[in-house]
Amino acid sequence: MFEINIDNSDYKNIFFIGIGGISMSALAELMLDRGYNVFGSDRSHTINTDKLEKNGATIYYEHKKEHIKNMDLVVFTDAISFDNEEYMQAVKDKIDIVDRATFLGAVMKNFNSSIAVSGTHGKTSTTSMIAEIIKDLDVNPTIMLGGQLKDIDGNIRIGGEDLFLTEACEYKANILKYFPTTAIILNIDEDHLDYFDNIDHIIKTFKRYVDNLDSEAIAILNADDENVEKLYPIENCKVITFGINNEADVMAKNIDYDENGFASYDLYINGEKINRVSLSIMGNHNVLNSLAAIAASRVNGISIENCIKGLKDYKGVERRLENKGTYEGAQIVDDYAHHPTEIKSSIHALKVSCKGKLITVFQPHTFTRTKLLLDAFSKSFDESDIIIITDIYAAREKDYGDIHSKTLKNAIAEHRDNVYYIAEFDDIIDFIKNNIEEDDIVVTMGAGDVYKIGEILLKEKATI
Description:
By secondary structure, the protein is α/β, with parallel strands linked by helices. It folds into 3 domains: 13-98, Rossmann fold (3-Layer(aba) Sandwich), CATH 3.40.50.720; 109-313, UDP-N-acetylmuramoyl-L-alanine:D-glutamate ligase, CATH 3.40.1190; 322-463, Mur ligase, C-terminal domain (Protein-Tyrosine Phosphatase, Chain A, Alpha-Beta Complex). The protein is built from 15 helices and 21 strands. Helix 5 packs across helix 9 and helix 14 (425-435) packs across helix 15 (451-463). GO terms for molecular function: UDP-N-acetylmuramate-L-alanine ligase activity.
């Protein structure tokens, strides 16, 4: 098993293949802070690579085998293929090489306590909520996020070695490489079907993850999720539950929403009313996320008062129901939702405060997900007044021609009006300009580059 003492290691020169990724860049920044010589490669500049270069990393914007010379350790992202020049050269030269998840799992063991936030949906939001709660406390946490949080100036906060907070993605069964002292499972849904066979395969992977926890660990589980319920019995570690509908250790009752769609609720712990909690973000799903954040914070010694304050202060993370600005009196929002369950939750959250039309621009993410979840996608937009589907963002996949955005558009149109397929972003922008009215909400949705549509609209507004 790969291990590393990040304060005293024989590895001096570390190379990250795919260093610009949200998790890879955070790991690289941590190793830079610990005095390692950090190198890496990626396809293009990002805010993450620019920051790393400013802090002393050497980054190449192409993949060449020559880059691997004199490296002690190579860390690679799941996004690369095994015919990558640098990867193949590292294998040929017998350089120690590990995948990102294995490296993160080894890093996690350097901390006295660790919180890992897993689940199909809500990982970044929940991790960011916990980050907001704990970031300024004496515990001095080290935090790694799957998004950009303004209050920690990016995707990582480097602190001490008492507490480590990170996301834990299930893709390629990566969660089996993590051994946190606090393991949150927010939900279990059908996704990443380019790796998993089906929902049963996903549930079995989460079950193995829980079964790997030691007797001192705590599993924090969603009592409202039917697939999480299938993880029981759990006898190897302590379990704490959270929920709204089903009886749980940590519960939200008497939920209300203000004119902005922000929730407030009565917090109950072990059946006792504790206090009123007010959020500064939208959505019933974020009520559940906040309960998980409270549970994880409490078992790590954080007071209820600090939990309530942190949740009130939390204004959201980049690309999660992010309010980008206004155009012609309409609100422009961007959201990372790319799974049917996420889309439905985000649209419902926006509809609560929408006084005009809700216009959704959706960019499907990966051909596999679009094809295998087509029926669920077709039923996810029902609360939107106008739906625009643009071309599929391929990400790591090749287009074999067996699925197209027009297929999704037609599936939605079987039971909905006002559904359009528009390929080009410029044409989408023209459509919005011709249809937008005061008090409307326009939400760009997806894990690709669809957010650029809102940014172009707002930039045009600024130059008028």
